[in-house]
Design goal:
It is a single chain. The chain has two domains: about 90 residues, Glutaredoxin, CATH 3.40.30; about 120 residues, Glutathione S-transferase Yfyf (Class Pi), Chain A, domain 2. The protein contains nine helices and five strands; from the N terminus they run E-E-H-E-H-E-E-H-H-H-H-H-H-H. Helix 1 crosses helix 7 and helix 7 crosses helix 8. The longest helix is centred in the middle third of the chain and has 26 residues. It is globular and about 45 Å long. The protein binds glutathione.
């Protein structure tokens, strides 16, 4: 991984990821890049200092969200779309199963985390709760824990039924769903969610976190980590 702060001429070979160490959507993409052994340039954008909301950054992603991936002339947003793009261009190892049902299932589990847990607990949501609706820090924590616990309750039931050996959420290799689980588990710990009702998810996440590609993508392993 290299750091690049200044834009460079488009090079079709270069992958450039706009990332923040604690951004779980960026964390998903970092895992995918590592699993596929892809070199990339990291451009760090600090969310707390609103570096994702500058004019230059909004020209890359008008949503004002990380991650953004540049690949030559191509600029991509939305972590799940980015990961599918990488999976199509660099298929080893495959992160989406070949069989249509398993493929749909992996996407559903990933979306259960990305859309049903992560989206309502995102920074801009909690900022709005605080600034526009006058909620205090305790209320923000309760809000985030509520959505994480609701989502994890459903996910735990699915994992108990479908995970073999508690190593992956689905089947016996890493899928897109696992790339979403580990960052969400990091967030859950940060929000001090009681994880005792979710032993299957904890076991799967612990196994995944021990894999080198996941460990190298962890927030603490990022050069921009400031905690
Ligand atoms: N659905 C988007 C979510 C992206 C997202 O929410 N990114 C967060 C960091 S994890 C962000 O940039 N938040 C900035 C904000 O909320 O102001 C994706 O999967 O890429």
């Amino acid at each position: 991984m290299k750091n690049a702060d200044a834009p460079r001429p488009a090079d079709p070979a270069v992958l450039r990821l706009f990332t923040y160490f604690r951004s779980s959507a960026s964390y998903r993409v970092r895992i995918a890049l590592n699993l596929k052994h892809l070199e990339y340039e990291a451009v760090y954008r600090h969310l707390r200092y609103d570096e994702h909301l500058t004019t230059a950054q909004l020209s890359l992603n008008p949503e004002g969200l990380l991650p953004v991936l540049q690949h030559g002339e191509v600029t991509l947003t939305q972590s799940l779309a980015i990961i599918e793009y990488l999976d199509e261009l660099f298929p080893e190892p495959r992160l989406l199963p070949a069989a249509p049902a398993a493929r749909a299932h992996a996407r559903a589990l990933a979306q259960s985390i990305a859309c049903e847990i992560h989206a309502p607990t995102n920074l801009r949501v909690t900022r709005y709760l605080k600034s526009a609706l006058g909620q205090d820090q305790a209320a923000l924590g309760a809000w985030s824990r509520h959505w994480i616990e609701a989502g994890f309750t459903a996910l735990e039931a699915r994992a108990r039924a479908e995970s073999s050996g508690h190593r992956f959420l689905l089947g016996d290799s890493v899928t897109l769903a696992d790339l979403c689980l580990v960052p969400q588990m990091y967030n859950a710990r940060r929000q001090q969610v009681d994880l005792s009702p979710f032993p299957t998810l904890v076991a799967i996440s612990s196994h995944l976190e021990s894999l080198p590609a996941f460990a190298a993508a962890a927030p603490e392993a990022q050069p921009d980590c400031d905690i």
